[in-house]
Amino acid sequence: MTDSIEDFLAPLARLAEDAPGIEGLVIWAEDGAWPASDTPTEALEAEEIAFYAEGLLLEGFGMAWDILALPDDPEEQLAVRLMVWQGAAPPPPAAPKPWITLDRKERPAR
Question: Kind of pairing, strands 77-85 and 100-107?
Answer without folding.
Answer: unpaired
